[in-house]
Amino acid sequence: MPFAVKDCALAAIATGVRAHNLRELRDRLMTVHPGSIYYHFWGGLLRAAFENREYMNDFADWSRKAHGLHDEALAERLSVIDPTDFEDLEELRQQLVEVTSERLEESEKLRLLHADRPFMFIRSQIVIFDTYVTIEHPSQLPMTAPMMTPSSFFFHFVDARRRTKDRMDDFREWLMEFGDEFRSLIDRLAGLDPYFVPLVELKEKIADIFTGYFAGETV
Amino acid sequence: MSGLLDAYAKAAGEDTISHLRQLASTLNGMKVVHVNSTREGGGVAEILCRLVPLQQELGFDARWEVITGGKEFYQCTKSFHNALQGNPVVVPERLLKEFEKTNRENADRMKDALEDADAVFIHDPQPAPLIKYFPNRKGKWIWRCHIDASQPYRPVWNYLRKFVAQYDASVFSLAEFSQSLPHPQYLILPSIDPLSEKNMDIPDEEVDHVAATFGLDRSRPLAVQISRFDRFKDPTGVIRAYRLAKKFSPGLQLVLAGGGATDDPEGSTVLKEVQEAAGGDGDVHVLLLPADAHRTINALQRAADIVVQKSIREGFGLTVTEGLWKGKPVIGGNTGGIKIQVIDHHTGFLVSTPEGAAMRMRYLLLNRERREDMGREARDYVRRNFLLTRQLREHLTLMVGLHHGSEDRIGMG
């Protein structure tokens, strides 16, 4: 099957739900729209950024910030949560509730602390576009990748981890259809952590992997 | 591809235009009407005069209607504006009656345009009650709030909320402006049009000519704030910042330029306050420009070494985007949409006081290379995030989203 290149955009929707302290964050996490969990884990990658992300999701980011909870321990524990470890957004939600509840029990200061700026829960709708570009064979990847948009890489490399059966990116899933022929390329893609770098940089890194592989570079 | 879409494809990329076409094709020539309260002056009118032709170009039956009213109507809506931005304003019953009466009259006038429209975008509070007079409306009605409503004066918001709650969706610029409402609240940042007279590239000779017209010396540093004469824009704070910075940069000149908007009855009072604050200083140029002085504003922003927008409340601040697009670092008030655009040490500096603005002016005037680096980053940031095509895509996405209900994933093509 050829690889159909898609593109996407997120429509952000305010839920009106806000958390001013850790207890509220935990309580709101229990009930907030699942699309909000998605947005705060992945949506940040589609927002404009000048620097690499320090924390991998908005919950961790707010926990760390001076105008948020200013709590490094919580930020670190939230940051290490890998959303692909969970079957679905409900399981991911449970983990967030666990981590925030645990920290709430540990820290008396956090039970009293009121953030300067509340955490605003946002959810999103993802709109998927057809680019009308298809890749017939993996050898075309080095030529096609530089022409794809950063948001296209978001769709195929990040969003894919939520919707594919084995929680992997679309490129690897497609390459696996060719048996073991592209095993080493699959392994190189598996070694790329998508959560820390801006999408423009992620695109460059993936394009470099494709180019390097087909130019016969060894890792 | 049409000439207009072709031109936008050059500025924003072919893929962006392809997205617009895919979204438009699923909406199949819908009738879309925008309603606001002024055809000239202010950011909303500027967005609509470019957005509507682009929607038409994509095959929509797109129109722009303007609500009209008398002096008391605009007094009332200016009070709403101030109250939504946090001022505790008591609006007399007499003005509220005039507000609703004017909306009823405008509803009668616009009946044919609005009743059978597939999507109606009502901009800001002035026309918000129109929905009440269309019980048989066919399409989706969306209320677009361009104002910083993060901490509205509650009695006024509660009055307006009874109208806004009737809409199918609302749009705010930032999550912190959103309210408790019984419908989806989309978050869409405004934008500028790179092809408009205000933002297109113009020859250096034209910049020199405009500067000379206003007596500006191009060999000396220049700070420029472009905005309506409105206390929320803090023009007198900018003059104070200029005076503090001028001690260290004696050649510094300041331009405070803006036009009047037909829906702003306070403009002339604030202009007088600003002229008094300037106090006859020959290097402070207070300019009241006509509403169509887009190229003049373009030239003034390009002539500037620093663009300032020291607002104390701001829905978004398109003049910030305009300054960034022209490769200028912006010193902006730490409020509303300015916070999204001005990124410290990248595209400019956020400040909370005139003293802060003065300190950043001194830093930027001293560091020409840094100023130029920041200017390059600023332009690229706008190109990636704040162009009209992105805003239109989000409007169309909203329309598609409303027709798909609460689905999380919507496929095009």
Written overview of the protein:
- The complex is a heterodimer of chains A (219) and B (413).
- Chain A folds into two domains: 10-123, no CATH class; 129-214, no CATH class.
- In chain A, α1 (22-31) runs antiparallel to α5 (89-106), α2 packs across α5 and α3 (58-64) runs antiparallel to α4 (72-79).
- A two-stranded antiparallel sheet of chain A has the order 1-2.
- Chain A contains eleven helices and two strands, in the order βααααααβααααα.
- Chain A has helices at residues 22-31, 34-42, 58-64, 72-79, 89-106, 108-112, 141-144, 150-163, 170-175, 183-190, 199-214; strands spanning 3-19, 119-135.
- Chain A is an alpha+beta fold and 219 residues long.
- Helix content of chain A is 48%, strand content 16%.
- The mean pLDDT of chain A is 91.
- Chain B is α/β, with parallel strands linked by helices.
- Chain B folds into two domains: 3-191 and 387-403, Glycogen Phosphorylase B (Rossmann fold); 204-385, 3-Layer(aba) Sandwich (Rossmann fold), CATH 3.40.50.2000.
- In chain B, the strands form two sheets. Chain B has a six-stranded parallel beta sheet with strand order 2-1-3-4-5-6, sandwiched between helices.
- In chain B, α12 links the parallel β11 (330-333) and β12.
- In chain B, α1 (3-12) crosses α2 (14-27).
- The interface between A and B is medium-sized, with 25 and 38 residues.
List keywords for this structure.
heterodimer, A: 219 residues, alpha+beta, 2 domains, two-stranded antiparallel ribbon, 11 helices, 16% strand, B: 413 residues, alpha/beta, Rossmann fold, 6-stranded parallel sheet
Instruction: Output the helix-strand order of chain B.
Output: HHEHEHHEEHEEHEHEHEHEHEHEHHHE
Number of strands of chain B: 13
Compute the number of structural domains of chain B: 2
Number of strands of chain A: 2
Strand residue percentage of chain A: 15-25%
N-end to C-end Cα span of chain A: 28 Å
Radius of gyration of chain B, taken over Cα atoms and rounded to an integer in Å = 21 Å
Q: DSSP helix count of chain B?
A: 15
> Low-confidence runs of chain B (pLDDT<50, min 5 residues)?
none
The chain-level mean pLDDT of chain B equals: 93
* Outline of chain A: elongated
Radius of gyration of chain A: 19 Å
What's the name of the CATH homologous superfamily of the largest domain in chain B? Glycogen Phosphorylase B
Largest interface: A-B, 25 and 38 residues
Major sheet strand order of chain A: 1-2
Quickly count the domains of chain A. Answer: 2
Q: Major sheet of chain B: order of its strands?
A: 2-1-3-4-5-6
What is the typical, i.e. mean, pLDDT of chain A?
A: 91
- What oligomeric assembly is this protein in? heterodimer
Give the overall shape of chain B, derived from the CA principal axes. globular
Outline the biggest β-sheet of chain B. Answer: 6 strands, parallel
